[in-house]
Amino acid sequence: MSDAKLPKTYTRIRAQYPKLAEAIDELGQVVRQEGPIDLKSAELIKLAAAVSIRSEGAVHSHAKQARAAGASTDEIHHTIILLTSTIGFPAVMAALSWVDDVIDHGDVGHYP
After folding, report:
1. Ranges for the Carboxymuconolactone decarboxylase-like domain (predicted)?
2. What pTM was estimated for this model as a whole?
3. Lesser CB count within 10 Å: N end or C end of the chain?
4. Structural domain of 70
């Protein structure tokens, strides 16, 4: 994904703090490799966490990453709908609208 598609703040912070960015990237790689969960399932779990903290930017990012890992639209929607009894219907509806931003635009790129 080109830097033009990345959020400006994300790009600026990565440039301003390259060692932090590198450490975060490395941490992400290490935790993915430490267990038996496949990449697609891991991305859906991270999507659910992003939905739970109501972070639109993180929902966009993790929806893109889930798509890139092979998750279908139905799997992404189901991941979010499963949260209804935990975080509430309004939060689920908001998150569904956020992932549909990604799905409708066909953007399956991901953050580095």
Report:
1. 18-100
2. 0.84
3. C
4. 37-112
